[in-house]
Amino acid sequence: MLRYSDTNFFGVEQTSPELLAWNTIGNTTSPDEANFGALALMNGLIDEALGTDMLFKAGNRPVGKESEVRYGLVQCTRDINTTSCSNCLGQLMNDANQCCQQKQGWRILAPSCNIRYENYLFFQKPPVPPSPQPVPAAPQPPPDNGGGGGKNTTKIVIITLSSITVVAALLGFWYSYSSFDRRKRKEEGDMSQASMLGNWEASHTIGSIQARDQDNSGEMHYFNLSTMQAATNNFSDANKLGEGGFGPVYKGMLINGKEIAVKRLSMKSKQGLEEFKNEVLLIVKLQHKHLVRLLGCCVEGGEKLLVYE
User: Fold this and answer.
1) Of 3.30.200.20, 3.40.50.1000, 3.30.870.10, 3.40.50.1370, which CATH number belongs to 199-308?
2) Domain boundaries, the chain
């Protein structure tokens, strides 16, 4: 989903303009009869989506007397909060009740959210059954040369079975090792971003992309670079407050309305990651009720940022 505008739409819930589409092949109910199975599925998915940071959920359930499986998907853009997402999806469900209740399938798209209901699986491909392994052809018996023919046949069968066993064992070992190696590399890749701040993480909380800090708990957060770019209008000159030895400072606003000041380490600075981490730890120790509070930091894409109230 892509969106481009000449006005700032971050955090603004919008359901207009709205695009509706539906399956034209037959109806599930009469025009005046509500499809309670569809309502139960979609409202359940909305409740589940609102309980996650992704604001997204897809799933299925049996519907109707014949328990035929139906599929649904609900989603909000990540720039709006949970309350706005609930309002947006609720408005789309109201519109679906007006236009599409008796349809086999339908979808409604709006700038801030979208919903879809179908009688077929549309959000993932069905699992492909594994192709059957070819059965090794039985060895042809050698010509009958008297009493020795039976012994030769036995030897050929034993050698063939032994070879198959060895090859199968080697393939199993290779597959197990490859799977372990892939899992290890994935885990190392997943941890690389988190480990950039070393032991700092052990005593502080790393927040999500939402970077909510509404409870003033004093916890440090790790902010996503995209969140910082959105908050400062991509570090625009209009948001620049000044510049010091560390680098320029920009004013910004998180999606929850909290005003922040973002110190951006100058690209010309010789300060490395270790020095940056030590500076963060020092500032944490200096936290005081009479000092501007450090909310967190961001280390991503070559950027090193400190986020203050």
Assistant:
1) 3.30.200.20
2) 19-118, 199-308
Q: Are 112 and 15 in contact (CB under 8 A)?
A: yes
What pLDDT sits at residue 185? Answer: 64
Average pLDDT score, the chain: 79
Contacts by 234-243, CB closer than 8 A, 24 or more apart = 235/262, 235/264
pLDDT single digits (tens) 53-83: 999 999 998 877 777 899 999 999 999 999 9
**259 pLDDT higher than 90:** yes
> 106-109 and 68-76: which strand pairing?
unpaired
CA 303/CA 93 separation, integer angstroms? 42
Is 70 exceeded by the pLDDT of residue 189? no
Cβ burial of 114 (10 Å; 0-12, 13-18, 19+) is: buried
Give the CA distances from residue 243 to residues 62, 140, 234, 264, in Å, rounded to whole numbers and listed in that order: 61, 85, 17, 9
Length reported for the chain: 309
